[in-house]
Amino acid sequence: SSGQSRGKAERMFRLMDEFLKNDPMSLQKDIIHHVEFTVARSRFSFDDFEAYQALSHSVRDRLIERWHDTHQHFKKKDPKRLYFLSLEFLMGRSLSNSVINLGIRDEYADALAQLGFEFEVLAEQEGDAALGNGGLARLSACQMDSLATLDYPAMGYGLRYQYGLFRQIIVDGYQHEQPDFWLNFGNPWEIERVQVSYSVKFYGTVEEKASNGVKYHVWVPGETVEAVAYDNPIPGYGTRNAINLRLWAAKPSGQYDLESYNTGDYINAVVNRQKAEIISNVLYPDDRSYQGKELRLKQQYFFVSASTQDIIRRFKDDHDNFDEFPDKVAFQINETQPSLAIVEVMRVLIDEERLAWKRAWEIVCKLFSFTSHSVNPEGLEKIPVDLLGSLLPRHLQIIYDINHNFMEELKKKIGQDYRRLDQMSIVAEGTVKTIRMANLSIICSHTVNGVSRLHYELLKTRVFKEFYDLWPQKFQYKTNGVTQRRWIVVSNPSLCSLISKWLGTEEWIRNVDLLVGLREHASNPVLQQEWRMVKKINKIRLAEYIETLTGVEVSLDAMFDVQVKRIHEYKRQLLNILGIIHRYYCIKNMNESDRKKVVPRVCIIGGKAAPGYEIAKKIIKLCHAVAEKVNNDADVGDLLKLIFIPDYNVSVAEMVIPGSDLSQHISTAGHEASGTSSMKFLMNGCLLLATADGSTVEIAEEVGSENMFLFGAKVHEVPQLREKATSEVPIQFVRVVRMVRDGYFGFKDYFKSLCDTVEDGKDFYLLGSDFSSYLEAQAMADREFVNEEKWTRMSILSTAGSGRFSSDRTMDEYSKLSWGIQPCKCPF
Ligand code: NBX
């Protein structure tokens, strides 16, 4: 019979081989096939969107093929696997990235050309998958790309929100939020797996039972919801490996509550069951504050429980001794949102697998590594005990038990130091008793990671100082990185070709360290000329986008100066805008001959404010109010333009970043854990204007601080500056704030509270005290920009120095130092 099945396998293999050929003719047939039978349009009449759909399905087939093979290969080799748990993934578009990683971009472009379509135009049809807020979520996406490319046996787990991050629309300069129902037109990049589903329990009670004198607990749930898997293949570049991102959707449980049907109210019974789906309905749009919301906690546990069941099921398929679990499984906890996984694994081991507490605990302690993305102790996640206890009664008991054991152990080490014991306890006493998820994560993880060196220093000395003193060996850092596949190859094809030409190889796409090879050519006039040409192409693309979007025509000779990221007081978009007002004021008060010397600027700002974050929303409005005045002032003309790009997201970033000359990363020192967009700008040869915060410190070490515009207070200076009752605020600062306050840009009352945030003595983010050095850095950028040769050289050196900031390096470091996993390459 094994001969028979081998015969069958070979036959299948031949069939597959015939199905998925990649020559232009086969691709055309394939696309047309999908037009007819998947999209169900006539092959004689279909529009760009339908062509995009058919094209994606054809690509999807090729992804599935590799994804199956990778799955089989991992199963056969049974390596230790990494499970990457994150409540957010900001994947953006998939089409271009997929065909590039599969190595068939040009074949598809040819095939489409012969059908009368342009690949780029169809790629623009795709909407973004925006299942995340900002840096943390995009980081997860970059890391998945690297894990696949480097052949690591990894899998991502997350939630399949029906509504991703809200769409931002601007009405009269104010932000409005609209739902992002991204699944409206179908999603070809996912595979629904109705057969892969698990029951997730909530509420109810815990009963204590005993068998043969051994006590155990049974959780009798009050509600059960089904988690259904949706798999998203993630193809590696230059490898056959394609790994899985498994996202869970909530569905009504299959276990019928017979009673409610028997009461005769059939319609209400059905409607009530349907309510289960709300768990995975919507992504929470705050990227820093935790409010103890029940639905949010439900989302967390829903995702954690389904993932854990899936992971344990896979382990048990091939293993029967849980002592081997840590040899086969590593869990990565992205921020604290997935940290209930720790408690859930503990619960399953003791209550369901009936392991003794001690043995279960030893296993759990070897499984988890935790990465923090926060610097602000006030921002750490705390869950009210009442909420947790009612939703997850058994978990609360286990958390108390973990905490009790920890406290006992700690007392032995440090004695009755109650202040310290209190700070380190998982349970925080207070008017509202809460569970500190970070403490839980640290206590139960073998590694605690920071996302940059500076962040790690802050974790050790401030945020988690008490824990560092106890367990210094647990603390590490892995400086963030981004994938050069998406951020150069996909988003900047002209630069990609230019780099490959000058390095004489495309190998840098897999081994980004090779970019240093550009250094020796940095002053070569031929490369410089071509380099500027590429920048011009990207600026044209961006300028066209700006014009269609805002109607403002911008000059290509101007310096494109960009700040795009979530709007936050600590990120100081307000500093940027006040700097623009200063520039405007100066231009207005110049004579004609001085105006001729002004370096023209196009200032571009983009980003979303959390819907409840009033000050952030006022910053957006101020940006529009200033733009309105400046852009329509005939005295100013092309010397200064201010553009707000609405609905900033991954695909907008792919266009904005390559078209920038200068980019701003100007957070108050000590507030940005790492920052990752700086790395994308750097790769694309944009110069950075930055404070010494997060990863910019390390970027300066790589590219040389002489090739950046650094300014502002250092981390160690910030506390003293804040202490000072009044600081030496420059007159320029007082003047620009006054202009806003006095209604120079209108909306006087509306901007009052915004101005109050930077009043002397209340200026927590130190805009006033950093203002002079900010203006100096800006003036320096102006001076260098007119020196074309020097600027181009700095630009080339930026790209050349960006190699360390690839997520490939980050993933190698995690694999070696935290997860203990090795590559597992699927043969071609
Ligand atoms: O994570 C960000 C940091 O602010 C960046 O400095 C860092 O580069 C990036 C990646 O490490 N943090 C972040 O984006 N946090 C969130 O998005 C977030 C979302 C939900 C939530 C808390 C934080 N409840």
UniProtKB/TrEMBL annotation:
<keyword id="KW-0328">Glycosyltransferase</keyword>
<dbReference type="GO" id="GO:0030170">
    <property type="term" value="F:pyridoxal phosphate binding"/>
</dbReference>
<keyword id="KW-0808">Transferase</keyword>
<keyword id="KW-0663">Pyridoxal phosphate</keyword>
<comment type="similarity">
    <text>Belongs to the glycogen phosphorylase family.</text>
</comment>
<protein>
    <recommendedName>
        <fullName>Alpha-1,4 glucan phosphorylase</fullName>
        <ecNumber>2.4.1.1</ecNumber>
    </recommendedName>
</protein>
<comment type="function">
    <text>Allosteric enzyme that catalyzes the rate-limiting step in glycogen catabolism, the phosphorolytic cleavage of glycogen to produce glucose-1-phosphate, and plays a central role in maintaining cellular and organismal glucose homeostasis.</text>
</comment>
<keyword id="KW-0119">Carbohydrate metabolism</keyword>
<dbReference type="GO" id="GO:0005737">
    <property type="term" value="C:cytoplasm"/>
</dbReference>
<dbReference type="GO" id="GO:0008184">
    <property type="term" value="F:glycogen phosphorylase activity"/>
</dbReference>
<keyword id="KW-0021">Allosteric enzyme</keyword>
<dbReference type="GO" id="GO:0005980">
    <property type="term" value="P:glycogen catabolic process"/>
</dbReference>
